[in-house]
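Hi R.,

Quick one: here's the N-acetyltransferase 16, like sequence you asked about.
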Amino acid sequence: MQRACLGQSEGLTLWLAQPDDYEDVISMSAGMHDGSDYLPHRYHSWMTEPDRVVVLARRECRLVALVSYLLVDEGATVVVQGLRVCPTDRGHGVAGVIQRFTDRYIQQLHPGVKMKRLVRGQDPGPEKLVKFKILGRRGVLSLALEAESIGSFISHLRNKLQSPVIPGLIPLNEAQVKRVFLDPKLPCRVQLPGISFIQDWVPLQRMEGNLEILKRQKITWLVDSLAAPSFLSLYTPPYPIPYNGGSLCLNIDMLGADHVLAQCALVNLLEAAWAKGELRGTVRIYVYMSKALRETLLSFCEGHQGVRTCRDLVQQLFLERQL
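And here's the predicted structure, written out as tokens:
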């Protein structure tokens, strides 16, 4: 396959990633994200996804880094994803080299890009944060359980619901998703961080051009009200991850501040995924939400012997800077 060499920078040679780089990428990524690495599942779809650029850095033919940029907000913003450096090369500025090079490359391809956004799971420290504007923080709840425990776990949660009447959340069709997503009052109702909509680590401005990006994710959307939603919850279909020799990962995003609705949304989404037969084997569940909800949901999920609360990820940090 013809490879596109983009150039050299600070001792590294930069290339556009190709499908047959997969084995090198996965070898370099071993152990990432406590076994919950999404890249083995998504790498090949990234190769054909519109408006996505994946860049590899090599030193003497050895793969040392990868970064992926996704063009969003109708061409005004790039979102950084998948940044990783080979363990033997960490701490030597490689991440900075590949990002600076890719920043310049993106600006050549898309001169209209003005902003760069990323969502981090860890605080990078004051020296790096000074380069960015912090747009918000979200709490993360991480659970691990076996599929055969999910039915009893759902029953356990239903018994713990604070409300004697379980509010029903409403699924949205495509037309309703568009109306809710573009509603100018939505940021105030559901307390969007940085007035941006974050779905599965991708921050998006609420504009029509981003709806196609969301549509590609095959999201299940639930709201408390069609007329004036104050709480949204959504999940993407579970996907395989390396954890525990081969598991599934279920990502759930919650937008809103109501504790009871958050509990009901978790129950509703688990029931929906379970009913579709999407959960099997070992399942890692990540729930992303307002920081104010995290302790409530953590307490809500505790007390079932088949569920383990993990501590590998507790927050999302939403960052932005000019490109």
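The chain has two domains: 5-113, 137-316.

Cheers,
M.
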